[in-house]
Amino acid sequence: MAKKDYYQILGVSSNASAEEIKKAYRKMAMQHHPDRNRDRPEAEEKFKEASEAYSVLGNGEKRKIYDQYGINGLRMGNGGPDGGFFSDSAFADFGDILGDLFGFGQPFSGSRQRRQGPRQGRDLGLEVVLTLEESFLGVEKEIAVERERNCPECDGSGSEAGQDAQVCSKCGGTGNVRLAQGFFSVSTTCPACRGSGRLITHPCKKCRGQARVNESKKIKVTFPSGIDEGNRMRVAGEGEGGSQGGSPGDLYLMVRIKEDKNFQRQGNDLLCQLQISFSQAALGDQISVKTFEEVEKVKIPPAAQNGQIIKIKGKGFRQVNRWSRGDLLIKIHVVTPKDLTRQESELFKKLREIERSRDKSLFEKDAFN
Ligand SMILES: [Zn+2]
Ligand SMILES: [Zn+2]
Question: At the top level of CATH, which class does the domain 263-368 belong to?
């Protein structure tokens, strides 16, 4: 897939304000609008490209994901069969965007977007932060989601019970009108009925005729053991609700992992540091190390060196949906003793003498040249 830089497409800097992005897009949309460039077929490509860029950069949430993970962040994460971040196509939001900019709904003549009939709910994206321990063991979490759903009172009709909506007189129930807007004339969503072809005469009290309400819901999600930074999880059907019988969108969870003060992840291995003394390093020892799952008895071999890594097989991260596991890697850190007692000091002096007599070269001045 070609790498696209949405900022470049709109000709703005990566720290442009929302207002600047909107302005830049508006200018490009006016310039390349297909209705004004019938003799220039490449204009439509440009127009689509700019609109796609704006559908991301003009949306705070998507822009955040794009800035952090690039265009792939907006599509599916590592190895999943699920669809992309944009449920239907990258253009799913155009109607709304252009409505937002120009004050009307659909930009294209013979538009891609149908306001009438079932409409799928939008996908939602959320970031979830897990501790390293949670990602190691797997965890069930409650995620709070704010989203739009059909009004439960009127079941998404917008009308009070028993009061059916009337056919819109402005568009005659088709949902579309032709509008002259500045330089060009377009077929667009009827502003009176907003494309539904019907007018609500007795609006539902709960949603004030909007047919949609915001709801906050808590959803239980199980994050599998081994889940990693940047992985995406799709929770089917937990995005925004569809309208007029359309299916709901999906919820995408972007996983971030908080740093741990004792352990790190390296591929599928779990890495930690173990501080040991001179004598433990020289003679070897057995030490208990508390990992996320158990207390691990670690055997330090005699003559262990600073920086040496002890590997305990199969005690690292699980690979999601696989049997295999990484290893536990324990990095030896030999600590020089401080604040020696009198007795320790005596013993170290004795040790130094023995070492001197055993290997003279270590203490001769020449050895440092
Ligand atoms: Zn309602
Ligand atoms: Zn109408």
Answer: mainly beta
